Structure formats: structure tokens, C-alpha cells
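Let us practice reading a record.
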Amino acid sequence: MYFHLANNAIKFTKKVGRTEGSANTITIIVEDKNEDDNDDKSVVVVSVQDTGPGIDPEILPRLFSKFVTNSQTGTGLGLFISKSIVEAHGGKMWAHNNNDIFGQRTKGARFYFTLPIINKSTINQPTKTKTNTDAINKEEEGEREVIITIP
């Protein structure tokens, strides 16, 4: 799921192109959260946010359905399969345009998925993230953030 969402973000962010003085970015955040204030129900929340064109409002209500695409090369199955896999493992997946939640003219979209944590003690183990040299890694307690600038 992570690869598919990041790949889509890169593909659609590149479509927009850059305006002078701005950078197209993709922000990936991984958080450890408790569901419903219950320590026994911890989840990992992964979000992938981009500064691309956002999700076409006509597609948004059926975004995770079969054969829905706004791409010349896609089959429209990637998000459907990703959501099916997440739900089969007890997680959830959703998305929104950035301006839908922030109420301002912000570009791009944000996709989320959650997965239950089986052994919470493993979440704080160091992870290796392979990114390009322009990436900025930021770690805080319970959260990892990677910001990638798209040339």
C-alpha cells in the first residue's frame, strides 16, 4: 500500500509541474496511535500527502471502486486492491483533497491507511527508509515523517 500510494503521489505531483518559487512535495507520515483511547487497540496510521492536482471531485465518491482512474496508464485497480488488502488485515483506508479539510486553496490530496499493531513494543524499533538525497527525515516520539521534493 505504501509503495502504491507514494508512486501515485509522485506520478500526479509531476503532472502539475512547478511554479517559480515553489516546490512539489510529498509528505509521508507514520504514526503509532491508540484507537478509542484503548491501549489494547493500537494502530499504525500512514498518510501520504502530495501537492499535485488533487482528486477529481467526480471520482472522489467512488475512488476505491474497481476500474476508477484519472490516469492514462493506470488500470483503476490499484486503490481498490490496496483498500481490500488493508481491510483484510483489520485496517481502514480513506482519502480527501487537502482543501476539503483545511478549507483553503491548498493543492494536492492526502491518503491514509491504518493497520492494527500486533506487538506494540516493535513500533519503536529503528526502521530503514530508502529515499532520494533530497529527502528530509524527521523523527519524533511515535511519529516518522519523510518529505520528498519532486524535481
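A brief commentary: DSSP finds three helices and six strands in the chain.
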